[in-house]
Amino acid sequence: MNARALSYVLASAALVALTALAFAVGRYPVSLGEIVNLLFSKVTGGAHTLPANVETVVLQVRGPRVLAALLVGAALAAAGTAYQGMFRNPLVSPDILGVSTGAALGAVLGIFLSQGIFFIQIFAFAGGLAAVGLVYWIGSRLRGHDPLLALVLTGVVIGTLLGSAIALLKYLADPYNQLPAITYWLLGSLASLSPRDLATAAPFALVGLVPMLLLRWRMNLLALPDDEARALGVDVRRLRTLVVVCATLMTASAVAISGIIGWVGLLIPHAARMLVGPDFGRLLPLAMLLGAAFLLAVDTLCRTIATIEVPPGVLTALIGTPFFLWLFALSRRPW
Amino acid sequence: MRSLIFISILFPSLCFSQAAAIDATGREIRPPAKVERVYAAGPPAGMLVFAIAPDKLTGWTRAMRPSEAQFLPERYAQLPELGRLTGRGNTANVEVVLKAKTDLIVDVGSTGETYASLAAQMQQQTRIPYALFDGRIESTPAALRALGRLMGDEANAEKLAAWCERELTDAKQRVSRAKQHPLVYYGRSPSGLQTGGKGSINVEVLDFLGARNAAAEARPGLATVSFEQVLLWDPEVILTTDPNFWKSVWTDPRWRTVKAVAAKRVYLSPHLPFGWFDFPPGANRLLGIWWAGKLLYPQAFEDVDLRAKVAEFHRLFYHREPSAAKLDAVLREPGVLPQ
């Protein structure tokens, strides 16, 4: 077995093991036997004699949260991988075109208007899409520049503008009630995730993910200069738009249910690239596996190590940074 | 001559004004002889100044919204918005405070070193006496008296302070008669998963009432907890300040098996004109003591007429007794009291 295949196998094995572990641990004690028993009775449609709380924990609380961590991790890593390839820049993360900032502004506005959780998430999702739409519209109208540079620059500038709108809303918010809620949302967390959140967000994330997976071999062409790609018979503009739409759908639906969780979309693509090289067709599946496993590990720690929840953004940086440096030191691959 | 200077250094209060008071940070505050205009640095301070002498309050931290204004006499509800001065985000312009010809700045709340130094610094910068008082519920009578002395309204302040003391003692005695102390979870934010640990200012009403706070082991201050943790605590009563959470708790399958939800003991704190249970952390929470007392200890608080308490508190602290219709609107809002 070559090193590439080994990476896939190891990453998949790690993901499966982590998922089993994540189901087995938590603040509420549920034994592995009870989980198996419960799932078995659900699959076969038979009755079980487990306490009602066990069913609530496994099916309503922990299960959806584990799945959401997998989904958000995979989505952020995939979007980051696509953008790093497309912008030919290793420093790019999924929010380069303002999707996270736009989602944050939407959510903050929802909290400011005293909305319930569902509408806060809708606001966040819409905010993310609107921000990228605006950036893309302005960026593609700035002629006479490299189109990618125009896009990145517009993204940074609009991101700053939206950031100041968030700051204004925080300033105007009620300091005893709304401000803490805003702060917690911006820190990101999967703590309050419900099955409904997952059911609402997952279809959008999949709609973004499937085309990207299908076109992953062709996306290598995005790394070429425009005229070379065109010479190979690829409409770069259309492909680029498609990548932006897919990445935005994935990131916006992830951020809407999790808040802003940094590092995953930036670090995981690098880790994957060190393992299997820059070819997008091989890179994307591995990045998704690693992203899902990484965020699941982080979120499991977040919900188990203390009575209160630990913000995942803190742990992603705390675990991700040394891990990344270690991988970087080991890696001998050309970038 | 020299001895006179000496005396004025030793006893400055003798020379500059009659009323001096030590604030909660131990600084001696010497307001001018006649205090006419008082700037309240935060909502809890505004409430106390307004209660003692409404005509001396120069403005609110944040302009009254129409839903809140209907509970106050019109001329006070229309006072301008002046912003917060210190503490959780400074929104006031110091020049506005100066322009308002302020005689005295008052803040009520945390007396920790951060706030004490901010008070000292602001006083030095503006040359306006800046008094900081402890905002805990049980310190309310003391804060009222000290503030009354500074403002030259001792009689009014004494009346309010004595009333507060009577109410607090009465509530304490009732709690001591209660046989069972229920396990209570306080859920904030639309998800209900934000809570306050033991000693947190957000759950002072619970601590005062001797209720067992489910989240006692969490850190003091606000924190997010996981849903599994709440299930593990399995509280008997849930109190919340968020109407969205109160509505969703009945339909969300995750909450169904929690003892409080199964027993229909999830209650929503009234919030007009100021919250009863948590924020702002001011004298408004005196009502929260009677409200939560009735919910947590139905027997010990059985003969408490909540309606009369609300009317009396409003008359004393907000200078207007709410109409029967308004009282109904507050007390009959779904979730406020058992159906």
Structure description:
The complex is a heterodimer of chains A (335) and B (339). Chain A is mainly alpha-helical and 335 residues long. Chain A has one domain (3-330): ABC transporter involved in vitamin B12 uptake, BtuC (Orthogonal Bundle), CATH 1.10.3470.10. Helices cover 74% and strands 0% of the residues of chain A. Chain A is built from 13 helices and no strands. The longest helix of chain A has 35 residues, at 52-86. With 339 residues, chain B is an alpha/beta fold. Chain B has two domains: 2-157, Rossmann fold (3-Layer(aba) Sandwich), CATH 3.40.50.1980; 179-331, Rossmann fold (3-Layer(aba) Sandwich). Helices cover 42% and strands 11% of the residues of chain B. Chain B has helices at residues 2-10, 12-16, 43-52, 66-69, 74-77, 94-99, 113-126, 140-151, 154-177, 204-208, 227-233, 243-249, 259-262, 285-296, 306-318, 324-331, and strands at residues 21-22, 28-29, 38-40, 104-109, 130-134, 183-187, 194-196, 212-213, 222-224, 237-240, 266-268. In chain B, β1 (21-22) and β2 (28-29) form a beta hairpin. Chain B is globular. The N and C termini of chain B lie far apart (75 Å). Chains A and B meet through α3 and α7 of A and β9, α11 and α12 of B.
